[in-house]
Specification:
The chain has 168 residues and is mainly α. It is built from 6 helices and 2 strands; from the N terminus they run H-H-H-H-E-E-H-H. It has a domain at 43-148: Winged helix-like DNA-binding domain superfamily/Winged helix DNA-binding domain (Arc Repressor Mutant, subunit A). Helix content is 52%, strand content 6%.
C-alpha cells in the first residue's frame, strides 16, 4: 500500500484558521509596515528614506565617494547627484575631491548632518520597536541578530565602488 498523503492535494485551512505565510509574503508584510512608518519618521530629511540611507552610508566610512554610496544603497548615479545636491543645500553634507581619485567626489557629513543622522536613527529605532512589537525584547533581539547574519553579505549587487579602504 502507498502513503496516500504524498499524492493528496494540500488542504485549504478553514476560514479564520492561522495560515503560515511563505517567506516572501511574510517579509513583504513586515517591510511594508516598516517602510510606511519609517517614511514618516524621516520625512523631514531631504530625500526621505534615501536621504537617511545616504547619511548613514557616508557616516559608516564604507563608501566615501558619491559613486560608491550610490552603488551601496542601490540608486542610479544621476538620482544620487540630485540627492546629494539637496542634502548639501540643507547643510547636512559636503562634497570634496577624493584624494585617491580626483575625478570622484567624497560625500562627508557636516556636524549638522551628524546630528540629524543621530536624531533620525533614534526615530527609526522607535519604528523598529513598533514594527516588532509582537515580539518580546529577547525575541526582537534574536530576530535582529538573525536578520543581520542573513544579510551580512548584502545584496548580490556590484559593490566594487565600495571596495578598498575608506577614504577621508
Amino acid at each position: 500500500m502507498t502513503d496516500s498523503t504524498a499524492t493528496e492535494a494540500p488542504t485549504v485551512a478553514p476560514r479564520g484558521a492561522s495560515v503560515r505565510a511563505d517567506l516572501g509574503q511574510a517579509l513583504g508584510t513586515l517591510l511594508r509596515a516598516y517602510l510606511q512608518q519609517a517614511g514618516t519618521a524621516v520625512a523631514d530629511l531631504p530625500g526621505g528614506p534615501r536621504g537617511y540611507q545616504l547619511l548613514a552610508t557616508a557616516s559608516s566610512g564604507r563608501c566615501a565617494n558619491q559613486a560608491g554610496i550610490a552603488a551601496s544603497i542601490g540608486i542610479d548615479r544621476t538620482v544620487m547627484t540630485y540627492l546629494v545636491d539637496d542634502l548639501e543645500k540643507a547643510g547636512l553634507v559636503e562634497r570634496r575631491p577624493d584624494p585617491v581619485d580626483r575625478r570622484a567626489r567624497q560625500v562627508l557629513l557636516t556636524p549638522a548632518g551628524e546630528a540629524t543622522l543621530a536624531e533620525a536613527t533614534a526615530r527609526l529605532a522607535e519604528v523598529e520597536s513598533a514594527v516588532l512589537a509582537g515580539l518580546d525584547a529577547d525575541e526582537a533581539a534574536t530576530f535582529r541578530r538573525l536578520l543581520d547574519r542573513v544579510t551580512a553579505d548584502g545584496p548580490p549587487a556590484d559593490h566594487a565602488a565600495c571596495a578598498g579602504p575608506p577614504t577621508c
